[in-house]
Amino acid sequence: MGRYVARRLLQMIPVFIGSTFLIFMMMYVLPGDPVRALMGEQAFDPTLVEKMRHDLGLDQPWWWQYGHYLAGLFQGDFGTEIASKREISEIIAAAFPVTIRLTLFAFTFTAVVGIGLGIIAGLRPDSVQDRGLLTLTLILISMPSFVLGYLLQYFFAFQLQMVTPTVQDSENFGDLLLPAVVLGSLSLAYVARLTRTSMVENLRADYMRTAVAKGLPRRRIVGVHLMRNSLIPVVTFLGTDIGNLMTGAIVTEGIFNVQGVGNAIFEALTRREGATVVGIASLIVIVYLFTSLIVDLLYAVLDPRIRYA
Amino acid sequence: MPEKTADKVELSKATAAESEAAAPETATPAAAKARSLWSDAWYDLRRNPLFLISSVLIVLLLVMAFAPSLFTSASPRDADLAKHYLQPPNWSHFFEPDWFGYDGQGRSIYARVVHGARASILVGVGVTLLVTILGTAVGMTAGYFGGLVDALLSRITDVFMGIPYMLGALVILTTFAERKIWVVIAAMAFLGWTTIARVARGAVVTIKQSDYVVAARALGASTTRIMLKHILPNALAPIIVVATIALGGYIAAEATLSFLGIGLAEPTVSWGVDVATGKQQLRNAPYVLIIPSVMVSITVLSFLMFGDAVRNALDPKLR
Amino acid sequence: MRGARSAKWVAGAIVVALAATACGGGSDDKGDSSKKGALAGYVSIDVGEPQKPLVPADTNESNGGYVIRALFTQLLDFDEKGEIVYTNAESVTTKDSKTWTVKLKEGWKFHNGEPVTAQSYVDAWNWYANSKNNQQNAFWFSDIVGYEDVHPDKGEPKSDKMSGLKVVDDTTFTIELKDQVPYFNYKLGYTTFAPLPKVFYDDPKAFGQKPIGNGPYQFEKWTHKKLIQVKAWDGYKGPNKAQNKGIQFKHYATPEAAYQDVVSGNLDIIKQVGPTDLPKYKQDLGDGALDQPYAAIQTLVPAFYSKTFKGVDPKVLQGLSMAIDRDTITKTVLNNTRMPATSFTPPQVKGNQQLDTDIFKYDPAKAKKLIKEGGGVPGNKIWIQYNTDGGHKEWVTAVCESIRNATGVDCVGDPKPDFATDLEARDNNEVKSMYRGGWVADYPININFLKELYHSKAESNNGRFSDKEIDKLMEKGDNASSLEEAVKAYQEVEKKLVDKMPSIPLWYYRINGGHGKNVDNVTINYQGDIQLHKVTVK
Lengths: 309, 319, 538
Fold this sequence. Notes:
The complex is a heterotrimer.
Chain A: H1 2-29, H2 34-39, H3 46-56, H4 62-74, H5 88-123, H6 128-142, H7 145-159, H8 173-203, H9 206-213, H10 218-256, H11 261-270, H12 274-302
Chain B: H1 2-19, H2 27-32, H3 34-46, H4 49-66, H5 81-84, H6 109-145, H7 147-162, H8 165-175, H9 181-192, H10 194-207, H11 211-218, H12 223-259, H13 271-278, H14 287-314
Helix pairs in contact in B: 1-10, 3-14, 4-6, 4-14, 6-7, 6-9, 6-10, 6-12, 7-10, 8-9, 10-12, 11-12, 12-13, 12-14, 13-14
Chain C: H1 2-27, H2 30-35, E1 42-45, H3 62-71, E2 76-78, E3 84-86, E4 89-94, E5 99-104, H4 118-129, H5 147-150, E6 165-169, E7 172-176, H6 184-187, H7 199-202, H8 204-209, E8 217-223, E9 227-232, E10 246-250, H9 255-263, E11 269-270, H10 281-285, E12 289-302, H11 314-322, H12 326-331, E13 338-340, H13 364-373, E14 381-387, H14 393-407, E15 410-416, H15 419-427, E16 434-440, H16 446-454, H17 468-478, H18 483-500, E17 504-515, E18 519-520, E19 536-537
Parallel strand pairs in C: 1-10, 14-15, 14-16
Antiparallel strand pairs in C: 2-3, 4-5, 5-7, 6-7, 8-9, 9-10, 11-17, 12-16, 12-17, 13-17, 18-19
Helix pairs in contact in C: 11-13, 17-18
Family (chain B): Belongs to the binding-protein-dependent transport system permease family.
Membrane topology (chain B): Multi-pass membrane protein
Pfam family, one (chain B): BPD_transp_1
């Protein structure tokens, strides 16, 4: 197990460098210059733009800029923003907790409601509630988050006036409810269907028949034997989904005005603050890499048939 | 055999995420009776109401995409601000230009919804095809040759998987001044081939140890022949399952990108763009936003149901 | 039973997480948290995060501008009509439009108690203009003698002082200009000309986060991307003394969110209502609704190097102008946020005039005729370049459809995903045929709208319009001995522009903002900015 973890950690290094490099290069080839964009539409001094670009190293070749960036990163320095001259670590520190809060909220919602619905449907395959759940999840999956977001905003905020259309305070869980539901709905549908399918499959498994034959109480059969085996794929899915939720937040945060990572990255992109974009993206990549490692380990823990050497 | 157990985990994770609990063993029994699988699947599909409904819808959408004039004679671009600015829908005027009302430019929403089908369908199908070809090629190469090739290709797959999809698409598409349909398709495929590559690799790893492949190799069949004749047909089932289900997702993704203003652009008619325009009228004329939104959802739903039906038919365990 | 234990653990974790969120949801009272931070007597407004640190000569965008104006006072300012009001200066005079004498009011101090002297101004201006300091507005000092010494085109500056600035005594200094600029005193109203206290030079970087000025308000705190708070300064002596206890500049990512807060009473003032709420804001806000024109114009600028418009006959552009139904578009698509243009300058600036022409009238028949006479549009198709992140898409589409319907010339938008890309295409002469131009007054004189945009050497002339006759007429205005004459000369320029068509003026801007019931006396200056010092709290 220890060796496996060590190997996985080693494998992460090239993947991390590769991903950040790709994002860096994408930013590098983007048209539009951050310094020029600062000057806006009004008159400006082109020699000043040249000078500032030089001072920032933006006139250097890409490999120099990337090397410079990586060197800083390994010393824990994310760089500073071109316009605001603020430390990027400061910007990240302000935006990440908001998104993490939103993501965890959405995640909890997804897990609890999704698994709950899946169990209800899975215990009675082909019943009315099972068919109902399948239809509901299909509809949820087929609604892109901006569609669901605006529909909920229209009905709950404009028609019923139950909530404010946008988030006023990103530390208020009541305000975050609507965006969390929108963010989590797609995963919720997947989780519910996954739980349901997995349970239906396991209901027909030999060990279930054995358990029933042994005369074990139903509660124990469902609670221990069935659930434990059925939730394995669900847990794996939930694990990989944390990363997806974080990036899916770009759209949701935009609709509901949540001051998180998605908004920060979108803003940085339009202003060509390359270091901010790459910095935030790198962190998301790290979150993704570690959640997938944890999921694989969890998988081994849950399923005794799998052993890592 | 440490390598193999790890493979199993990765395969099952990918399929689980995409096609919901299609267990790791899917490929093996499917491979054993390849021919009957397809005919069985077809037999199954014909009696599945989901499949029938979704097929009808998809055919309808395809006709809409390639012959919009069958549905409406109105042009999606013609605007008459003075006469039609935000004119509300006239629900009883079936198939008339004013059926769904007019948008903030005085354009017929019905005409725009009909003409918007082409972009969505083209992007959905285009990305799916490209992703399947690319992903299968990478996955099969990695799975068949194993060793260093596998390690390298798997790491590259990891790199692409690590890049947040929306972010990657945002950055790539911002680079292009003119975002024609093929640009959007290429950008989406560039970032999206990884899932299929993993599924394909997983399937190939299992299949290449089966008796008939070993036999073919012993008889001296060439690598290309083994790959194309023996492995590909048997690995196809899980790939098709993932691809058909993903198709709906790509349509939704295109709409989302267009909605964010970096997907398709005017004068291409796209539902995502129309939703983005409609959000300004959300308070006083919600139908401008809701109608194209519903179209996106119906289209995605049709392809999802279709994919679901295909998966049920091809996955013998669920039969 | 390792697995079972883990499953329990996972379930336990979910329960804990759920409990945590439930607690979070319960303990946070909604009304409380959104109101938190509101201070009695303070006015709150939706002014977002400034792009840059708060240094006067490094700020050229509206958010930073608001804060700078609260913290700093320059020599003079303008009233609603665009007339000069002296603030820190007693007088600014000249005999020949070349040497200007500035007399300061006595007894002025910075917020830290340091007196505001002629030296505070001269040192600040020298620092701003110095190319080493990378100040964005440095070129504003380029009229002054010796600017090249501190800001050479290439290399290190030769000096750190402009020889044109001379301190006479504590309250007097003179400015010597390279050429006559009859309207130079108007330029001095720009925030860039603000003075700096001595502490600034010790650590400009720290100062930018915590500025000390001489303005009506004193800096209190800056929580990035949330709030900037300033409080009224007791020691202020200018005519624009604060009528309230302080200002909170609150950051909102969308105007919709800010609007919602105004309606619910959590925010006092919104600068500009978002498009979603425009159709209903007057109804929602009642007396609090603001709707006023200001000195800014939107135009379509032909790229005179493009395939479409290279060597174009101005008649074609006049025809295109007449193909745009400005009235209908401003009323529908733009929700009355603009007012159809009738000249190249907005009505709020000195020298704006009624032009004797019909090119601003919607007349499809004449439009077609003019385009035909002018030889038509090559390829019979035009593109209008715009940035999608600025809310321009709707009107560009409407203008295009208007042109297409009226003349048969195909017209499509050429969207750039963001302003940076849009600007780059303009700078590099890559505009396909036209781009959307916009200009807000820097100072309220017609010259600002004509010289900066249509002189062949003007930096912002991105359409590369170049006409010797126009340049010559402008030169005449620049050499005028008095402001009145200069303005008159530029009126002649404008009349001539009708025949040359360096751009197609579309409409003037209006501000559509609003305020809640807690505040009163919300007024707007000629640049469309809310005059915060005048706002009173009920």
